[in-house]
Amino acid sequence: MAESKTILIAEDSSVILNLTKKILELQKYKILTAKNGGEVIKQVENNKIDAILMDLNIPVKSGMDCTREIRAHENKEIANIPIIAVTGNANNYSMEDFKEAGINDYLPKPLDFDALVLTVKKHTAQ
């Protein structure tokens, strides 16, 4: 069997973080977490990550700022990690804003866990 993919969940709500983590662990993903934008950057530089679930409203650095920073990273492997935006107020953003920042996909809150699994699978399939 292929080695499990690593997903970074950037989310400041413990409830959403723990639920999302459990759902993805049931799908055999390895999960790393970050509670703020500073931790996101540390995680991507210190671990091989296959996809990021990025809450756009996290402290320290917003999800959009983190995405831009990752996309500008000199390490191409890091710069090309699929990033899935997760937000409860997507109305504040257009698909153009997401594309401009380098976001690959988007999931609205409250999370639909079937959509979550399908979207993560889509971006981590070999």
TrEMBL record:
The keyword Phosphoprotein applies. The keyword Cell inner membrane does not apply. Residues 6-124 form the Response regulatory domain. The modification 4-aspartylphosphate is found at residue 55. CDD domains: REC_hyHK_CKI1_RcsC-like. InterPro entries: CheY-like_superfamily, Sig_transdc_resp-reg_receiver. It comes from the Bacteria. GO terms for biological process: phosphorelay signal transduction system. Keywords: Phosphoprotein, Two-component regulatory system. This is Response regulator.
